[in-house]
Amino acid sequence: MGYPWKSEKIKPAVDENCNVSENLMKIAKKELREDKHTREQALQQLRNWINKNPDIENLRSDDQFLLRFLRVKKFSVPMAEQVLLKYLNLRKTYPHMSMNLDFLEPRVNSFMSNGYIFASPIRDRHGRRVVIMSAKGINPKIHTSTDQAKSHFITYETLMEDTETQILGLTHIADFSGVTTAHVTNWNPTEFARVFKWGEQSFPLRHKEIYLVNVPSSLKWVVDFVKNRVSAKIKNRFHCYTNVKDLHKHVDPDCLPQELGGKILMADMVESWKKELIAKRDLVINLDKMNLLSDRGITTSKNNNISTNSDGGIMTQWNPLPEVSEN
């Protein structure tokens, strides 16, 4: 089958300079070990591995797509390969949540228009996009866990198209105002835990700060449930506050909607976000063209060797870089 990403309607934008400003490049070098030579070398190695891998079909191979996997693993090519395989496997395993990501589909559009999840048009003090989730946007009598999951996938797939987000990561804010038991029971606990854990391991995003606000004491157990199912690194990035004033000590109110003490109405932020969704809609929808024929190349705890694969999956040779601390 020919390369399916040639249509002008869905062809990813080509940026020869990877859209990296001088200031952003300094951050990328310090935190991700990224420079022009490393980037070009890693992209070539990753593409060589993809071209030789019989289990991957119709993959996007533009720089913008591949760099998200390299950046999230600080240009360790074998680790980027694993995230790519896990990402494709996540989409294959949960197609009802991760495929057909069209925010104009009536159920999803209604859900997202209510302000359940959106990215603020104002970046935080670190230059990161701020993803805001509001429980008030959910009607558990109408909206399902699949609706919720799809809205997250749509949001993150759209944001991953941005170079700055790939490098700087995201700040998350979840407003628990209005949460009821019905919101919690909307999910099967086992599926929720599995999707949450898989999402951390499989989505090529840097989750830098996670703020939970207006969390009622009766639902603190939900927060503990989630924290116990993520890595220690992510767990340490959770911050829980009972009121908005405490949140403002850590997050500039200008990033927030009026409903959380900011200046811009949430409805206006949502409309601004929907324009971004429209701009990337065709690209996100057409990610469904990609396919993983077999998960045999995915490293498990029982076979934790990213240099070889006894099941026949193709692993790359790479030039190691000096170790750096986690960010």
TrEMBL record:
Region annotated Disordered, chain positions: 304-327
CDD domains: SEC14
One Pfam family linked to the record: CRAL_TRIO
Entry GO MF terms: phosphatidylinositol bisphosphate binding
The CRAL-TRIO domain, residue ranges: 104-268
Leader sequence segment: none
Family annotation (InterPro entries): CRAL-TRIO_dom, CRAL-TRIO_dom_sf, CRAL/TRIO_N_dom, CRAL/TRIO_N_dom_sf
UniProt GO cellular component terms: membrane
Domain of life of the native organism: Eukaryota
Listed name of the protein: CRAL-TRIO domain-containing protein
Biological classification of the source: Eukaryota, Metazoa, Ecdysozoa, Arthropoda, Hexapoda
